[in-house]
Amino acid sequence: MSALSPHLPSGHSPIAAVGIGCSAGGLDALRHILPGLPAGLPVPVVVVAHMGPSPDNPVLEAIGRHSGLPVVEAKERGKAVAGFVHVCPPDYHLLVEADHGFALSVDPKVNNSRPSIDVFLCAAAESWGSGLLAVLLTGASGDGAAGMAAVKAAGGLCIVQDPAGAHAPTMPRSAIDAGGADWVAPLDEIAGLIVSLCPPPRLEATS
Amino acid sequence: MPARASSIHGIEMDLVLEALARRHGYDFRHYARASLKRRMTGLAQKLGCAHIAELVPRVLHDDALLPEILAGLSVPVTEMFRDPPVFKAIRDTLLPMLATHPRINIWQAGCATGEEVYSLAILLKEADLLHKTQIYATDINDIALAKAEDGIFPAKAIEKYSDNYLKAGGQGALASYFSMGYGFAKIDAAIKEHISFAHHNLVADGVFCEVGLVVCRNVLIYFDRVLQDRVLGLFSDSLSRGGFLCLGTKENVTFSAAAPLFAAVDPALRLYKKRG
Ligand SMILES: C[S@@+](CC[C@H](N)C(=O)[O-])C[C@H]1O[C@@H](n2cnc3c(N)ncnc32)[C@H](O)[C@@H]1O
What we know:
The structure holds 2 protein chains of 2 kinds.
Chain A: E1 17-22, H1 26-33, E2 45-49, H2 58-63, E3 71-73, E4 85-87, E5 93-96, E6 102-105, H3 117-128, E7 132-136, H4 145-153, E8 157-161, H5 170-177, E9 183-185, H6 187-197, H7 203-206
Parallel strand pairs in A: 1-2, 1-7, 2-4, 3-4, 7-8, 8-9
Antiparallel strand pairs in A: 5-6
Helix pairs in contact in A: 3-4, 4-5
Chain B: H1 8-24, H2 33-46, H3 55-61, H4 66-73, H5 84-98, E1 104-109, H6 115-126, E2 133-139, H7 142-150, E3 152-154, H8 155-167, E4 178-181, E5 184-187, H9 189-192, E6 195-199, E7 211-216, H10 225-238, E8 239-247, E9 262-266, E10 271-274
Helix pairs in contact in B: 1-3, 5-6
């Protein structure tokens, strides 16, 4: 597997959005990564985590206080906004339209999941093309592998959590086997890698 | 007109959508694109097409295929008492207000295979209002409508929905509204007789009657803003003075051009009231 340097490959278009998918063990992994993202990150972050149906949003509650960036639920027709973490609501698929606006659907489950990471990543890859940085974390599911492949096919970049240290290795392992990883990184290094690949934080927000 | 897509997929989708609209009058051009693309790709695969554009001759020349195409592009995914707090609020807040009328008319738009409209009818039955109620349940998908009208569901599903039913304030046993046999559950005729199922297309068809409550959940999420505005206007025109509107929990009138037509009753549960 490729071990690129932690920099944007030369000539690559700038990162315009970060999409993160996770399943079993994902909340802990997110609590690890999100505090490492600086205020003023000039791109939107979108999180799709497997969860059961619920009248509220367990992911929002679990990670809201563990993030340097404000965390909000992705809203139907709302735009992905730079410097915010947008979290998918439970029991809906999250998609992204050409204008980077969010769309929700209750289409059937994909890979036994709604939300499905594949559904999100395929739509996000079409919306952001080579500007998408996709991150796939721990999970006991094959979801996400096809999505990561779609991101690569659209010219985007992919980080996969090292299955060796992952709470559940199946999901990152399937993505790597499907050829969908530019970087395979341990959990501790993922936030730093995201930051070094994204454009520098906006200064007014960090001061 | 939504912006024209220039990717090959985008062009193919535009061609199929144009063929459907001009040949059959079903206009999906104002549906949210990303999920429509997934469904169209799935439909093309199912019909053995190597490319989406191969659907064009099928749409133009194979009229018998139309129900299957409409079924493939629409999404008849539903449950009984999905989002129990919403059904609880209909039971506790809306029904007592509707009860003061001599007759109750309800329109459920986008009924899919019927689980939701039967949930509503059960609420009305338990509030002792069903005898003076007429519910119109409509959809664009005839295959789903036929299933809805049959009212036959896997017995296992009823077990699964029982939990939702109780959380929605159910007063008995959900299974008591069905006759069970051979692993299936058939809704009682006494519940069904107050529901009329009909084909109605929210994109093109107009007002067909005056109602005190419109329930339309998880349909607007599939529409772009232009179509959402049209449909919300249609609901307002169909509602009697002070009539109620119930949308899906992730749908909203707030950002619509139609927002001034409605006042919130319970904004978190997406219950609204027609103004004026
Ligand atoms: C996801 S289902 C919602 C079912 C149910 N209301 C619920 O929330 O459980 C969406 C339904 O809307 C229907 N639909 C889509 N476009 C429509 C249109 N233009 N007119 C009427 N119904 C439509 C689909 O056929 C499908 O049955």
